[in-house]
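re: that chain from earlier
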Amino acid sequence: MTEKTANAPYLFSKKIIFVFLLAIWCMIIIFGIFTLRKPKWLLKLSDPGRKTEAMVYIQEGNKLMFNEVQSSPEECEKALYYYRKSLEIDPSNLDALANSGIVCMLLNRLDEAKSIFEKCLKMDTIFQHRTYMQLADVYQRKGEIEKALEYYLAAAGTNPYNPYTFRKAGLLCMQLENFEDAVKYLEQSVEMEKSFGNFYKAQLIEAKYLALSKNDIAEVKVIDKELQKTDLTKDLQGYDKTIFEQTLLKSRDLGFAHMYLGDAYYYKSAYASAAENYRLSMQYYPDFAGELNNKIASALENIKK
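^ sequence. v structure.
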């Protein structure tokens, strides 16, 4: 009797330890089952960690792709690996998806790039204008000019303050021998490029996209109200336009726009307008001088006939 009484505390402690260990094992088994089934609440708990890990891979890919030196095919392949690793961790990451499409385009995997950008278009309702331009680039590389033009115009429809889309639309219209529309879009591009008001609205659009991505509805409403204004004179008075105007004095974009516009007028047999735009192209971007001097000479010769 005495021996049983002496062992009682020991046996009781042993039971407590057994129950404690059993509880731990049950929790591990239950957590394992939940992990296999991947309930939504569990996935949400791991979201911040997964997004951080995915971002590490994106940054590694970006180091290879977005630098001052053109990336080699080997670097592109490695970047694509990093973007895909990111997508394995976070399939909803649009940055990784869009960047993988850009890499595929650079590697001339055009059908793969097209498929990726079409997926981006379905997933993203905020930055659609960028995806439209990327799809347009893919179609242009594939030689499907009409389809490329359709997507550049779609990009212009979602962001009407981007001169690049109109310049590209004008260039593609020339390739389709639609010189009337080419002149229309190229003149629009030039006008927009030279307008500080348009530059201001383009910045507002970018700010709106950023606010939408952060779900900042109050900021979106303020920007929309500003964009609806037909007269921005008072708003623009508070800005120093000096840097903007100095930048325009030597502008590669205006150089291209005027060169294309000169070509469009030349094909329309409007040789005086062609020569004038070739001169403006050289003024804005002197590197074109060698090529454009011959074009000017040809336009002037046709005027004399």
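DSSP finds 16 helices and no strands in the chain.
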